[in-house]
Design a protein that fits this description.
70% of the residues lie in helices and 0% in strands. It is mostly helical. The chain has a domain of 149 residues: Alpha Horseshoe (Serine Threonine Protein Phosphatase 5, Tetratricopeptide repeat), CATH 1.25.40. The chain is globular, with a radius of gyration of 16 Å.
Length: 222
């Protein structure tokens, strides 16, 4: 990942969402190195105080890079490096975060070339989140049309997944499609639990519940 930002600048703090959420995708067996990155990411996102997260993610970026370097053709290693970079960008914020998200984008794109279905298609969802959270030209590469396309591909691969549905719901409410957002968020909350991802699931459900409450309030005219 919750993937997100008011829009990647100051807005970039939303990137933490990607992180905070992100993308805590399940799926397939991971190498010990990648699993360690995934688990540490969850600890930082959900159990580490806000003032300490930036430094913690900065350290994890190095660990994720080492895991990716050891397995350059492993889509999962690329995806998790991208997620960590996005999370670090979200905590850092500002113009300096743009370089980090561009690197994350490259990781996700390479992962798709290697195995688009890795980690239940999470590279598509993660990349889609970047496209709707990052500012557009000339500052960044944000593109809502591209984001929708990628998020839909993520859903095609993992139609019942908590993350794929959560981020699609977040995107739809950002686009003003409140009814569509409610449907997606309800589906996210109905997603089956992921073995070994209890902390990530708990955090994601909390985020989905909060966003759904906001959406329902809007729909009720509040």
């Amino acid at each position: 990942m919750s993937i997100p930002y008011p829009r990647i600048l100051a807005p970039l703090s939303g990137l933490a969402l990607l992180a905070v959420s992100a993308l805590a995708f399940a799926g397939g067996a991971l190498s010990a190195q990648v699993a360690s990155v995934r688990d540490r990411w969850a600890e930082i996102n959900y159990n580490t105080p806000k003032p300490q997260r930036e430094a913690a993610f900065e350290a994890l970026v190095k660990q994720a890079a080492a895991a990716r370097a050891a397995q350059p053709q492993d889509a999962a290693a690329l995806i998790w490096e991208g997620i960590v970079l996005s999370s670090f960008a979200g905590e850092r914020g500002g113009i300096g975060a743009i370089g980090l998200v561009k690197q994350a984008r490259a990781d996700f794109e390479q992962a798709i070339k290697i195995d688009a279905k890795a980690l239940d298609g999470s590279a598509y969802t993660s990349l889609g989140v970047l496209y709707y959270q990052v500012p557009g030209w000339p500052i960044g590469f944000g593109d809502d049309k591209k984001a929708r396309e990628l998020l839909r591909k993520g859903l095609q691969t993992d139609p019942d997944g908590i993350d794929a549905n959560y981020f699609f719901g977040d995107f739809l409410q950002d686009q003003g499609d409140w009814k569509g957002a409610a449907a997606a968020l309800e589906k996210a909350l109905a997603a089956p639990p992921r073995p070994g991802r209890e902390l990530a699931d708990q955090g994601r459900r909390k985020e989905a519940s909060a966003l759904l409450a906001k959406v329902r309030t809007h729909l009720a005219g509040g």
